[in-house]
Write a structure and sequence with these properties.
Layout (H helix, E strand, L loop, with lengths): L3 E6 L7 E5 L9 E6 L2 E6 L25 E3 L6 E3 L5 E3 L11 E4 L4 E5 L1
Antiparallel strand pairs: 1-9, 2-3, 3-4, 5-6, 6-7, 8-9
């Protein structure tokens, strides 16, 4: 059964930024949220190249490339579209990041189902 979890407030996420979260208390970020052009997207922190064994960021919350146009896997150099999670460059070309259901409450809370 999936649980709804409040991650943060929308105001805590700057545009063109990412933030990792550990909603299940595993001791590491297991999902991350990206805010781009006012929209918010959530993905599991797993590269599809080695699903479940490779996390994406090169540092805490470092999920984007230097232009803030793509999500990047620091281990493989794969690039993913922010809006879809689709790999457009790298060893997992055509595969996608696992998405996480996300909603924004009327009072601005960022909520995921995990």
């Amino acid at each position: 059964m999936e649980a709804r979890r409040v991650l943060c407030h929308l105001d805590d996420l700057e545009d063109d930024s990412t933030r990792g979260f550990d909603p299940d208390g595993q001791g590491r970020d297991t999902l991350f949220v990206v805010r781009k052009r006012g929209r918010v997207f959530a993905y599991r922190d797993e590269c599809p190249h080695y699903r479940g064994t490779t996390t994406l960021p090169w540092r805490k919350d470092g999920y984007l490339d230097s232009s803030a146009e793509f999500i990047v896997c620091a281990a493989h150099g794969a690039k993913f579209e922010i809006e879809t999670g689709l790999c457009v460059h790298g060893p997992c070309l055509g595969e996608s990041l696992p998405t996480v259901s996300l909603s924004i409450s009327q009072d601005g809370k960022v909520i995921v189902e995990c």
